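Q: what sequence does this backbone want?
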């Protein structure tokens, strides 16, 4: 079978993915969360945010509310609002102020204790167990000030994202700054290695099979922890999730990693369904990271680009991946 003929067949199959995408598959075996703002009407949302600003204004604390979290100015770290929104959603509106006050009183008390802990982290022997990595979309760099950007410690592992070094503290996630590491005398590589080892050890994800099609399954790494998607950088530790030819992987949002081992021609149908699934999950969030699909092979991540227009999708993998598909199809023909 010629490579040209195989490629034509492949294009025909890929076009079928357009139908899958337009249907926007809703029923999946993954527990999806809704972005906090979707719990409220616009009026309710404004009232909820007003109460939060009122709480911090009364304490003379300057904050910014962005992307579903409270950031205290001139301090690292975010206080997520997801859980608070769910609680208020179930209660009468006249109870919200009391709920918000109690929530942040407890959280601020915990953060004060963490401030004491932070002061001890100049000693690397103390700090190393709190290191972790968190993956953000690459445009995260555009949302922070120049000063913050200069002090971030990050690298680029997956196209369209950045991998940041963070402190995984008891009550919050705080970014590790260049200043924090001055006395550690460790290379950036050593810090990320320690951080990834901590992720693998301290935050094991829930792993479950999910249906891509009626007879093709993938593995979902899921969890409430906001660092769950970071397990994509520990994939070498999950050998059963890596096929003969590597794996298709995606991290549409912070609470999930999807992995499909590449073994045979089922890869073609898997791509179709995975694109539709990842697009939908990235859109819904929470904590959206990337709609990209990656090919993980021999420790490297290769971006597999696709472009969706109004009624058309183009899948444009690099030649190396096309060559792999041809090899897989040829081997299937020989059976």
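A:
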């Amino acid at each position: 079978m010629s490579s040209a003929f195989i490629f034509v067949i492949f294009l025909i199959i890929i076009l079928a993915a357009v139908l899958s995408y337009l249907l926007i598959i809703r029923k999946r075996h993954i527990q999806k969360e809704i972005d906090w703002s979707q719990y409220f009407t616009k009026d309710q949302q404004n009232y909820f945010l007003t109460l939060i600003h009122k709480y911090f204004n009364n304490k003379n604390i300057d904050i910014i509310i962005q992307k579903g979290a409270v950031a205290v100015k001139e301090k690292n770290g975010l206080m997520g609002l997801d859980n608070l929104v769910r609680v208020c959603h179930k209660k009468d509106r006249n109870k919200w102020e009391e709920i918000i006050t109690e929530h942040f009183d407890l959280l601020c008390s915990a953060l004060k204790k963490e401030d004491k802990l932070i002061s001890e982290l100049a000693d690397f022997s103390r700090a190393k167990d709190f290191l972790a990595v968190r993956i953000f979309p690459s445009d995260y760099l555009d949302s922070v000030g120049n000063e913050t950007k200069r002090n971030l410690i990050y690298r680029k592992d997956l196209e369209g994202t950045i991998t940041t070094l963070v402190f995984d503290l008891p009550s919050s996630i705080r970014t590790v700054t260049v200043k924090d590491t001055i006395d550690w005398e460790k290379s950036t590589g050593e810090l990320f290695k320690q951080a990834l080892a901590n992720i693998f050890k301290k935050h094991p994800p829930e792993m479950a099979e999910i249906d891509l099609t009626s007879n093709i399954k993938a593995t979902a790494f899921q969890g409430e922890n906001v660092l769950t998607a970071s397990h994509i950088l520990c994939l070498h530790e999950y050998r059963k999730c890596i096929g003969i030819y590597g794996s298709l992987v995606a991290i549409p949002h912070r609470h999930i990693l999807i992995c499909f081992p590449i073994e045979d021609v089922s890869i073609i149908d898997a791509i179709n369904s995975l694109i539709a699934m990842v697009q939908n999950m990235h859109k819904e969030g929470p904590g959206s990271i990337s709609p990209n699909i990656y090919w993980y092979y021999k420790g490297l991540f290769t971006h597999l680009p696709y472009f969706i227009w109004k009624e058309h999708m183009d899948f444009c993998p690099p030649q190396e991946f096309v060559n792999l598909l041809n090899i897989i199809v040829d081997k299937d023909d020989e059976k």
